[in-house]
Amino acid sequence: MKKLRRHIIIDRLLRNPNGMTTEEIWMNFIDDIEVTLDTIKYELKNWEKTYHCMDTNVPIRKRQRVWKYKDPNFSIFRQEITQAEEIYKAIDNLGKFKGNPMFLMLKFYLLQLTQSVDHPGNPIITFQHRQEYEGKQIDTMEIIAQAMLNKGVLRIKYQDFENVEETCNVHPYHLRQYNDRWFLFGWSEKLQEIKNFPIDRIKEAKQIAKEYRPCDVDFEHYFDDFIGVSDVPTEVQTVRFKVKKGGGYGQSGSYNYIVSKPLHSSQDEIEMPEGSEDEDYAIFTIDVKINYELKMLLFSYHENIEVLEPAELRDWMRDKINNMKQMYDKG
């Protein structure tokens, strides 16, 4: 995976019409200690010999040869026909898993890859991502994934939200993405319980020789009772809230949005009897644990949602709104 990512970056840089020196190309890998200047030199010379694709008439810059493709539309990946064929075979095989969103997303990734090989230019599919996941965090996820496949124990250096760094042993079980962030779920030897670790806060991860604690959690249903990634030691409660159906753009828009994109899989809309004082409102319920992510999600709808119950959640919303009012009144 690291080699493929390196080749994709070099291939893109060589299409720069101004060309780039070896050192300028290498600077794109400065954070990767495994990629040396000699690595880049070897790749460039090997590609030149294999594909005869380099422009040899570019003037020297800073006493160094300037590298670029003779044809700015050239790509080594378009030369690797067998690789493209394998990608298409993989897409065909994924057709066997219809209905599973995980395989659908993988199919989208493969389609984007084939498009970039066959038809470079404006992408037909894009994915939201954070810039840091293109570098060190991808390597960390690769180490974690390998440990899970090998049933190996990880020793990680982790920085918490108060920037306190600690080292702990983790038995990795599951990787999950939520709100544009990846999390590792695993058994913490220190806490003697399952804990989640944001990948971007793991500074170092390596597999160690230690007996692996088998996973006794069904992660297919682990997240059923709460929103996000924070499982709290409380009972599931019914959260009831109302949304105005008509009126201003924000209110009617929120109703349509909540109907088309439920807050939780348990969401249900209660039919209001005609003539009721709440006839112009929709009442929804969800059955979840009250955690931080739920509070932030409800709060993101501002005045367009009114939490009715449970009382402690309604009180929390009211206190936050009062605190915000006091803060803005000072201005």
Mean pLDDT: 82
Distance between the termini: 52 Å
Instruction: Note the quaternary state here.
Output: single chain
CATH architecture of the largest domain: 2-Layer Sandwich
Strand order within the widest sheet? 6-5-4-3-7
The figure for the number of domains is: 4
| SSE pattern, N- to C-terminal | HEHHEHHHHEEEEEEHEEHEH
CATH class type of the largest domain? Alpha Beta
| Cα Rg | 26 Å
Please give the largest β-sheet: 5 strands, antiparallel
Low-confidence stretches: none
- Please give the number of β-strands: 11
- Give the overall shape, derived from the CA principal axes: elongated
User: Number of helix segments?
Assistant: 10
Structural class label: alpha+beta
- What name does CATH use for the topology of the largest domain? Alpha-Beta Plaits
